[in-house]
Amino acid sequence: MRRRTNAITTAGLCFALASVMALEALPAVAAADAGPPAASALPPVSPVPQSLARAGDDVTVTSRVIVVADGDTDAAARDRLVRELKAHGAGRVDVVAPGRVPPVASGLLTVRIGPATRPDIAAALGDTAVPDRAEGYALRVAPAGRGARVTLGGTDAAGQFYAVQTLRQLFVRSGGDGWKVAGARVGDHPSMPLRGTIEGFYGQPWTHAERLDQMDFHGDVKANTYVYAPKDDPYHRGRWREPYPAEKLAELGELVDRATANHVRFTFAVSPGESICYSDPADRKALKDKLRALYDLGTRAFSVPLDDIDYTRWNCEADRAAYGEPGAGAAGKAQVDLLNDVQRTFVATHEGVWPLQMVPTEYYNHSESAYKRALRETLDPAVEVMWTGQGVVPAQITNAEAEQAAEVFGRKVFVWDNYPVNDFGNTSGRLLLAPYDKREAGLSEHLSGIVANPMNQPYASKVAVFGTADFTWNDLAYDARKNWRNAMSYLAGGDAEATDALLVFGDLQHLAPTFGAPWQPQAPGLSRLTAEFWKKWDAGDRAGAVGALRSHATAVQQAPATIRGGSVQKGFTADAAPWLDATALWGEAMVTMLDALAARQDGDKEASDRLLASSDALQQRARAVRVDPPRNSWGKVQPKVGDGVLDTFLLQAGLRLQLWDSTGGAENLALKGKASASSTELDLDRLAPRHVNDGKTDTRWASGYSDDAWVQVELAAPAKVAAVTLDWENACAAEYAVQTSGDGVNWRTVSTQRPDTCGNDVVRLSADETVRYVRMQGVERRTPWGYSIHEMGVYGTPAA
Questions:
Q1: N or C, which end of the chain is more exposed by having fewer CB within 10 Å?
Q2: Domains annotated on the chain, with CATH
Q3: The whole model's pTM is what?
């Protein structure tokens, strides 16, 4: 491991010769805490500490600050402490050794940092308990005579570093340009040993600069694990036997150093499963040589992922002779043989290396199998086994599921959480900005840790990873909604206006897909507001409805400019650029539509028609925006913004204007109708036709596997239909027709559609005849599966 110097450095202006300094006199703790504690609330700290309480009044950051550190003080913690002090009002920071504190310190802020067992730190902490846990720390802020003191004591070097990360969140404004430190007492440690991310997605890997930034971000949020496993790095997977080129190896070495400086375990992963001959000594040597090259750079954590491979065949005949005919059980034996060899002859024989990590081929369930039995019974107990939960992209992870996984794998599992990753088809066109959620409190008792698999967009991924770090640090205190605001504030550099803009934007990117129904809804905030709008509108309070929603529509319109205004991290604005472009247009379209409704309500049809046309034009411009150049394998697609909520509101509002004098206006007539279909996939009740018009976006109809499949809605009464909407799942149509009928026998094709991608289709009709049935008639499937639709809406006016 590369050595990090612990020599004491002097920051800011140097002080006079230390040899003339008198020994410090440490004020008694009891005297420091005298008087009633201040009543003001403490600022939010993330991750939420195990114990955080008000301990007294806030203390002033003086223009000169004394930092007391020694050779056992973590260098990274000390350096970050000095930076934070200088960023919060200290013009001069002097670093001195214990026993060398100058007499003038009695009137200054004094900060002690180092091991919690150091005598001066132990005395200053007093009765503030120091957790007896790895990476734990205690922090105390207290007045001390004419000055004040802050004490940071860690159970280890990482604990010291994390104490500083908490302290930087306790600075509060005092007057104009002044700063104070909130009077707090903290006792803290992580609930899970392993916390962070795995860069394990398909598609364009992160750049070197982006990875360096991620290591700093990990340090800020107390995440201690980064697994390097980009699927499209050829030397990680396809060309795993080959050494990295010198230029790439130098980048990895710099990344290891940056990770180490932030107390992050850079975990190097090699994924040989596509081609390895498990029993071949040459292949085993090639694998260990690959690991050794990174060990020489300072890497002390390694992983061998064996996911997304075919384990029903061997890559060499020698494995058939060694392990028998291919199959799950034989694959388990072969993998265990390889992994035990790496753990026992490489990991255990190299100083300072953490236990080996692996990803099993059966990583997505907790059912018993011959493969899992081989791992459970023969895999070295030290090896960490990764698991994604019940499903590749699980809607939730519960304690019961984690406990069952521990039983079948024979150890606590290490969760590879496939959120917020957006490299699969259902995420096409999406940023995933919903908070980290639906992971059950108490998982720290059943897991060794969680790493989030992020998006191809690294800065946008910080929203969810911020939550992952908070949850894994203290799952029992985790609050997804509070964390979401804290995450946005972090990205906004604490700017309140930019934070609010990010929350508005994030609401429009809230949908979190799985390979079935989404596990987080789209735009829950806007959905609630539009529902309230229609309730008021239909109750007759039309002016009130417009006024209440217009303020939020304006916020949507203005959010992109605010986000791009300078406070938000530039990497985020680059990641989100096409979505921000589209959001500005959708927001303007919404404001314009509301103005059109208000004008029509005031009797000005001419202005209303003009505004409606303008809104329609803005919507078309929004739909024309493309993610270009794409970082994902989706290609140049339309960025999805509040889809199924914002566009549906605009459709309904436009139809109300077009059908102003009609009874019912823009009612979704499908909700009162009866659905039927040509077929249902595997005759599964959960995919039955009735789900296509149940008003729920988390259910769906799916057809059998034929191009000519169809689904239809029989309306409750004959109607003139102005529009049909189709909320497609990822198995959508490359071409389909919308047909209508008065009797369910004779059909008329009223529109043929060839959508660019799977999403929410809005098909406008002429409403020139009365019909009873509306059908989606498939022409050509986009996938080998059938057609799958979450919701089919039919908008128009009942003929009666």
A1: C
A2: 18-188 (3.30.379.10), 194-491 (3.20.20.80), 524-658 (1.20.58.460), 667-798 (2.60.120.260)
A3: 0.87
